[in-house]
User: Which sequence fits this backbone?
């Protein structure tokens, strides 16, 4: 017999079209009779393992990764349990298909591959009706909302409404990596127009056919959205994703102390880069507080990473000014120095009292950093001169080419190892294959934010935190770094295997929740065993029994 929770189940074709409850060919004979499915499915009852193997075969037979992405999203649209089973069991192979780098191509092609809507679109045309729109969402208790305005999608720029693939992909990782139930995940795009000329001239573009809004109207829509979320979904955490630099920093500062909110491009990227740096120091030796770090890029990622590393240096005994003095930013005008006529507020703390240098290779030569970190989406900027200069100054130079997607990486793993004679400690934003060098196999680390944000979100949900703090991200980085094994380091990998990501996320979540309880930010009583409590809240993609 069905339990009472199943009394509201749709029947027949409606059940097969419900991605949360659908089991496809895995419905048993008894379930088919009970739920009006007899004759609507092929007669053989398949196991979840059978279904998984069929999905993998379909993916193998596709011609390219974009086609594989489309196939996986179609699976997610009809059977979420099976989708997450495949993703979790094959995460190293599947994650690049549903997120970076493939999601970038999917966003660029969004209006031409669109099949079925996922998430909510809130445009300027809906000002004054945002709360009403939230009522149209079918699931009443979302806990994680990932929202973008599409202005800075990966390293691809302004994609407008076509950026929806990013919130959808991020939330898939929340479920796969941290066990947030799919019905508790809500992707949202704020469509305020786009300045992408190709899209504005594309008759199939699905977003507003107008240039991007700035100023008061933009702020009013964002504020209405945040207020509506607090009213409709008061337990939801808001993650800001891929906003442009002009808005990301100020929106984070405006809302972070008022609602449960964070910006993954600033705080998540900072934490994952800090974790990679801590892992790298276990290979190269030395203390974090003694490192000299040069960033190519001074946007959200660069400033977020620099701020996080400086905060960690302060934890290890440096003063704030001393810590910031060990981090140099290099942007489109060159080294960020105090002599500039105008410096944006977010860059000012890292402006150094040095002569201006406009050439990045010259800056590497002059500053002799122990680490270079790329996060500006400029492919090839870590050229042979840069890497050989780093290798001449450091026995184990740290080279992090973090820009996404793969085509935007500052250098490849092969180049970093070759130009440093195999001595570079390399990490990238998108995955690179292992490299054979001098009889050894070197495994690049992937500095993917998926190591950080799912665990932070899970910890906030588990504790019902009212705020997300910088302390939580610092703690998440240290937990992640501690999970890098001696075997990982032997291969040159500064992050743990993606195959362990659910375990890592649980550990991060427990630490984040512990901070929430300790700092009085939790809205529930502290459990006796925080880690066990976190693990007990994690979703597993297992079919329910309906009969």
Assistant:
């Amino acid at each position: 017999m069905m339990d009472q929770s199943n009394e509201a189940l749709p029947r027949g074709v409606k059940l097969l079209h419900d991605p949360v409850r659908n089991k496809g060919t895995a419905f048993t004979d008894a379930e088919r009779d009970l739920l009006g499915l007899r004759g609507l499915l092929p007669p053989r009852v398949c196991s979840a393992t059978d279904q998984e193997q069929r999905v993998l075969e379909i993916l193998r037979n596709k011609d390219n990764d974009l086609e594989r992405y489309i196939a996986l999203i179609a699976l997610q649209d009809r059977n979420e349990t099976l989708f997450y089973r495949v993703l979790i069991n094959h995460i190293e192979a599947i994650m690049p298909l549903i997120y970076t780098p493939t999601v970038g191509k999917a966003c660029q092609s969004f209006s031409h591959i669109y099949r079925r809507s996922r998430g909510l679109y809130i445009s300027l045309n809906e000002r004054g009706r945002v709360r009403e729109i939230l009522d149209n969402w079918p699931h009443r208790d979302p806990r994680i909302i990932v929202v973008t305005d599409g202005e800075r999608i990966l390293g691809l720029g302004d994609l407008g409404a076509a950026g929806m693939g990013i919130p959808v992909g991020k939330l898939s990782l929340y479920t796969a990596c941290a066990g947030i139930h799919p019905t508790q995940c809500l992707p949202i795009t704020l469509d305020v127009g786009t300045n992408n000329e190709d899209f504005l001239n594309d008759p199939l573009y699905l977003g507003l056919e107008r240039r991007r809004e700035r100023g008061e109207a933009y702020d009013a829509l964002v504020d209405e959205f945040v207020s509506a979320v607090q009213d409709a979904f008061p337990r939801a955490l808001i993650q800001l994703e891929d906003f442009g630099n002009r808005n990301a920093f100020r929106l984070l500062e405006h809302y972070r102390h008022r609602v449960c909110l964070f910006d993954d491009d600033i705080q998540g990227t900072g934490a994952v880069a800090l974790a990679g740096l801590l892992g790298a120091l276990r290979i190269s030796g030395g203390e974090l507080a003694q490192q000299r770090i040069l960033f190519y890029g001074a946007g959200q990622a660069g400033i977020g990473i620099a701020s996080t590393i400086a905060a960690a240096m302060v934890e290890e005994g440096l003063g704030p000014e001393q810590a910031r003095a060990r981090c140099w930013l290099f942007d489109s005008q060159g080294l960020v120095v105090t002599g500039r006529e105008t410096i944006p507020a977010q860059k000012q703390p890292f402006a150094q009292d040095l002569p201006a240098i406009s050439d990045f290779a010259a800056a590497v030569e002059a500053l002799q950093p122990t680490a270079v970190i790329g996060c500006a989406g400029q492919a090839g900027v870590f050229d042979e001169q840069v890497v050989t200069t780093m290798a001449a100054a450091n026995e184990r130079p740290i080279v992090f080419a973090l820009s996404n997607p793969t085509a935007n990486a500052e250098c490849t793993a092969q180049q970093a190892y070759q130009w440093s004679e195999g001595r570079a400690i390399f990490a990238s934003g998108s995955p690179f294959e292992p490299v054979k060098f001098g009889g050894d196999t070197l495994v690049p680390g992937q500095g993917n934010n998926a190591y950080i944000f799912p665990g932070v979100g899970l910890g906030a949900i588990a504790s019902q935190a009212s705020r997300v703090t910088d302390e939580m991200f610092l703690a998440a980085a240290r937990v992640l770094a501690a999970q890098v094994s001696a075997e990982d380091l032997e291969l040159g990998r500064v992050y743990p295997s993606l195959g362990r990501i659910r375990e890592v996320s649980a550990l991060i979540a427990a630490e984040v929740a512990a901070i929430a309880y300790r700092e009085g930010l939790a809205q529930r009583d502290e459990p006796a065993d925080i880690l066990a409590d976190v693990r007990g809240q994690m979703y597993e993609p297992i079919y329910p029994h309906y009969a």
Summary: The chain has 24 helices and 14 strands.
